[in-house]
Design goal:
The protein is mainly alpha-helical. It folds into two domains: about 15-95, Tyrosine recombinase, N-terminal domain (DNA polymerase, domain 1), CATH 1.10.150; about 120-305, Intergrase catalytic core (hpI Integrase, Chain A), CATH 1.10.443. The chain is built from 13 helices and three strands, in the order H-H-H-H-H-H-H-E-E-E-H-H-H-H-H-H. A three-stranded antiparallel sheet has the order 1-2-3, with no helix packed on it. A hairpin with a 5-residue loop joins strand 2 (about 175) and strand 3 (about 185). Helix 6 (about 135-150) packs antiparallel against helix 8 (about 190-200) and helix 6 crosses helix 11 (about 255-270). The model is unreliable at about 1-5 (pLDDT under 50).
């Protein structure tokens, strides 16, 4: 599909005022502003082409515009983004007294279907972990990072934020701080526990720790970078990518894929969904339920491949 030339379109003054307000009052980033501008140019061009103005817009017109976006073949996410931009504009005009009413009231934002997690197979996870070789400090650290990510389903930010006081190797527990600093305690599996113990022990973390830490908070960090500071998200992401490339997984592997894989494999082996919800730190069970779809897909695939009367024609 050839993109429309939008840059030469002159927006109504109300729209320009709205975009200025987005920056001055809402602090929106340059990228967000550029996306809003593109969506609103497309909207105003459509109004012009259909003989309408901003003042003549009613709820039925907005419904028609959403239908127009879908007919153009835009993705659900793009339709949702454009609808949010248009609704925000009309709400602004009503709040600022530039319009008598807000025609977008009652117009629902299109829903974006939840994407299924791209979990690795258990064999792929083993192949990934087998890529970490040797007993050098960096190898111990990297092995511990991968084992903890897969073994606990933790987010990469949660792993990077770990302090030594959050680790209880004797009890096999890990304290994580998730979104909104919400605390949860999760179990450490045997392999993650062994890997983490080897990293924290002599020959691991102490070998990277400097005589004097640059920041006080770095002194308590579980995972350190080669310079002796707290390992950041980008550094941890690079660790995952390094061994993912070595295992032939390439772009398929991200830290979040290990989180997906942890949840999916637990459900595959009969874990209760509520337990998985607690492990991952999901506020709503609905978020966790997406993993049951993955497990069901695998169940159906195994059934079709293994049951003698799943696909065979009847005689």
């Amino acid at each position: 599909m050839v993109a429309e030339a939008l840059d030469d379109f002159e927006l109504p003054i109300d729209v320009e005022e709205f975009l200025t307000w987005m920056v001055a009052e809402r602090g929106r980033s340059a990228n967000t502003l550029a996306a809003y501008r593109r969506d609103l140019i497309a909207y105003c061009r459509w109004l012009d082409a259909t003989g309408r103005t901003l003042d003549s817009v009613r709820s039925s017109v907005l419904d028609a515009y959403v239908g127009h976006l879908r007919q153009r073949g835009l993705s659900p996410a793009s339709v949702k983004r454009a609808t949010v931009a248009v609704r925000s504009l009309h709400r602004f005009r009503a709040d600022e007294g530039l319009a008598e009413s807000d025609p977008s009231v009652g117009i629902e934002t299109p829903r974006v279907p939840a994407g299924l997690p791209k979990a690795l197979t258990e064999e792929q996870v083993i192949a990934l972990l087998d890529q970490v070789e040797g007993d050098a400090p960096i190898a111990r650290r990297d092995r511990a990072i991968l084992e903890v990510l897969y073994g606990t389903g933790a987010r990469i930010s949660e792993v990077c934020s770990l302090d030594l006081g959050d680790v209880d190797l004797d009890a096999g527990l890990l304290r994580l701080f998730g979104k909104g600093s919400k605390e949860r305690v999760v179990p450490l599996g045997r392999w993650a526990r062994v890997a983490l113990a080897a990293w924290i022990d002599d020959g691991g973390r102490p070998s990277l720790a400097p005589e004097r830490f640059a920041r006080r908070t770095d002194a308590e960090a579980v995972f350190l970078n080669a310079r002796g500071g707290r390992l950041g998200r980008q550094g941890a992401w690079s660790v995952v990518r390094k061994y993912g490339d070595a295992a032939g997984l390439g772009d398929r592997l991200t830290p979040h894929v290990l989180r997906h894989s942890c949840a999916t494999h637990m459900l595959d082996h009969g874990a209760d969904i509520r337990a998985v919800q607690e492990l991952l730190g999901h506020a709503s069970i609905t978020t966790t339920q997406v993993y049951t779809m993955v497990s069901n897909d695998r169940l159906f695939a195994v059934y079709d491949a293994a049951h003698p009367r799943a696909r065979a024609s009847r005689r």
